[in-house]
# Entry
Amino acid sequence: MKKLIEELTNLKNGDMYPFHMPGHKRQIKININPYDYDITEIGGFDNLHHAEGVLKDLQQRYANLYGADESYLLINGSSGGILSAIAAATEKEKEVLIARNSHKSVYHGAMLNRLKVHYLYPKTLPFGINGSIEVKDVEEAFKKHPGIKTVVITSPTYDGIISDVKGIAQVVHEHHGILIVDAAHGAHFGIHDIFPENNSVNYGDLVVLSLHKTLPSPTQSALLVYNRCAIPKSRVEFYLNVYETSSPSYVMMAAMEHCLSYIEKIEENKKRFLEYDNNLSAFYRETKNLKCLKVFGEENLGNSFGKDYTKILISTKNAENYGGEQLMVDLRNTYHLECEMAAVNYVTALSSFMDTKEGLDRLSRALKEIDSSLHYVNQQEIAPLTIYEPREKVKELYEIAGSEEQVVNLQEAAGKISMEFCYLYPPGIPIVTPGEKIPSDFQEQIENVKALSMEVEGLCDYSANTIKVLKTEHD
# Structure
């Protein structure tokens, strides 16, 4: 029987290089025993849910870093912050506008708060990834559904695509709405000139940042930023009490302070930032002229507002009989490079300013070597991913919960109402949500992604051969 600590020790002692979260890339070296720092809310150490001392100061320092009014430490990840923000910014059975490429926690928030959901669909970019949310689509949604009071978008996305948050915020606020931004992948924005501006924090009302995704902070550490918001702080704080653990880890919070201290010493660590920028630029130059593989560049942006190039996307669309999953396996098994995720036609490798020149050079050399072994096919555009096309909503998420259900094979599911989420994870964007009509080609879509070794999740049936649907009087 394998043991977790043994497996982690083997990883630590091996040469597998991490192009995945967390952003510290296992480069932080602190010789401490975590058990020495593991306490509860004893005298002199403050209480996260009623911060008045050292934890209040830490949260204020993070607020100052991002130029925000307030920041709140999230110890159980961004999901708790998203659930808290949605609960604070909405009223039961009111209308909400959600970007379809939202994290599953956004859908859970809509369901728990009995919200009537409308969706924004991003365009598909040449790499087969979701583009940005367009301002005109937000405006159109308000015209079509004037009851919308809250809007939830993701910027940057899992793949680093940035939306025009300033323009979207202007539309939302003109309609007296609240803008929640899931900026989990943008905690590094604005902390140095080599990164994009942090428009999510600058213009969003409630913004969630995952420190662990792109900064030197441990997994599960995140922030909820409160910024010039019409919602009372007391309401936000109430829902943080609901969704966040009542026993926050002081070891985790100390690590978050260490992360902040590192970033605050921007001049002292200037050399690392500039070296990383030079190394990342060199990587893009070295991989610009690959024959079959293609690394995402400016020419792939389409109409999207912007791109965070610390997210390295590698397309396999012009490689004959070679997909994203195979590329990820080859990078792992042959070159000992572990990437963040694989999609049908591309791989996402996450970099951060903690990456080393040796790591980026290894990835560059590996891609060149793999590329030289592949055969080119002239496939300029990837066929649209119909798995993310709009679905017919028959019932709201909260309306379908608790309804009578039945389990059917995928081939029998077409036209029935789903009782389950079904998505590829990562990135966790629903193919179908509870309450939506299952499309006629659903079985074909699922079989196609399974054949490409993609992970289909959300269904109770882990094999993805059956799905729970709403039972009707005719069944």
